[in-house]
């Protein structure tokens, strides 16, 4: 008789379903333009919010897979509809890697906040996940393409850092605030339904 050890699958059915559903939501937000919330000073993206929700509800593997799908969509979108900064987003280190890392940072932020206040734990995860997206994408653009970024924006190379980090500051705070509001509402609702 063979001795077969029981192996657990990489993902369960619920996790696979979550990856599919939240990846689709992220892609639909991008295709329709609903993934961008107009604010007085900037446009905040919420396309990373499904990654954060998936990570909190189903763990880092799920969050990272949704992040991969979001990043892959971003890369494909920049191939199909190029814009001023498409040269940067054609590099997976800019378009994919930071989005994958969102799932990791959001999940572990949620786990590491030792509080009985569930709202606080979710808000911390959403803020950290959102900042991972902003800092990761813009940081990689600066590290890899500072000169090309400056040229595309019509500024001196010496102003590239100031411009990139100005965008990160302006958009980052707005995006984190929007991510906290949406993520907290959705995660609390799902957890309530699951009970």
Our estimate of the beta-strand percent is: under 5%
Q: Class, according to the CATH hierarchy?
A: Mainly Alpha
Mean pLDDT: 90
Number of strands: 2
Q: What is the share of helical residues? A: over 70%
Question: What is the distance, rounded to the nearest whole angstrom, between the alpha carbons of the first and last residues?
Answer: 42 Å
What strand line-up does the widest sheet have? 1-2
The rounded Rg comes to 18 Å
Main sheet record: 2 strands, antiparallel
User: What's the total helix number?
Assistant: 8
Number of domains: 1
Uncertain segments are: none
Order of helices and strands, N to C? Answer: HEEHHHHHHH
Structural class: mainly alpha
List keywords for this structure.
2 strands, Arp2/3 complex 21 kDa subunit ARPC3, 3% strand, 75% helix, single chain, 195 residues, two-stranded antiparallel sheet, mainly alpha, globular
Topology:
Elements: H1 13-32, E1 36-38, E2 43-45, H2 49-58, H3 60-80, H4 86-89, H5 92-95, H6 97-112, H7 118-153, H8 160-194
Antiparallel strand pairs: 1-2
Helix pairs in contact: 1-2, 1-3, 2-3, 2-6, 2-7, 2-8, 3-6, 6-7, 7-8
How would you characterize this protein structure?
This protein has helices spanning 13-32, 49-58, 60-80, 86-89, 92-95, 97-112, 118-153, 160-194; strands spanning 36-38, 43-45. The protein has 195 residues and is mainly α. The chain has one domain (13-194): Arp2/3 complex 21 kDa subunit ARPC3. It has a two-stranded antiparallel sheet.
């Amino acid at each position: 008789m063979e001795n077969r050890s029981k192996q657990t699958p990489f993902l369960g059915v619920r996790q696979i379903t979550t990856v599919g559903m939240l990846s689709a939501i992220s892609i639909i937000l991008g295709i329709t333009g609903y993934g961008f919330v107009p604010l007085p000073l900037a446009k905040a993206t919420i396309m990373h919010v499904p990654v954060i929700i998936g990570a909190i509800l189903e763990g880092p593997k799920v969050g990272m897979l949704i992040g991969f799908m979001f990043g892959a969509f971003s890369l494909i979108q920049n191939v199909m509809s190029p814009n001023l900064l498409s040269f940067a987003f054609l590099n997976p280190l800019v378009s994919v890697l930071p989005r994958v890392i969102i799932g990791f940072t959001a999940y572990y932020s949620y786990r590491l906040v030792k509080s009985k206040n569930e709202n606080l734990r979710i808000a911390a995860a959403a803020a950290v996940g959102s900042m991972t997206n902003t800092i990761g994408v813009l940081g990689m653009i600066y590290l890899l393409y500072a000169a090309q970024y400056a040229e595309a924006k019509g500024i001196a190379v010496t102003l590239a850092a100031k411009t990139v980090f100005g965008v990160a500051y302006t958009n980052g705070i707005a995006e984190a605030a929007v991510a906290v509001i949406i993520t907290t509402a959705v995660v609390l609702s799902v957890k309530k339904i699951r009970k």
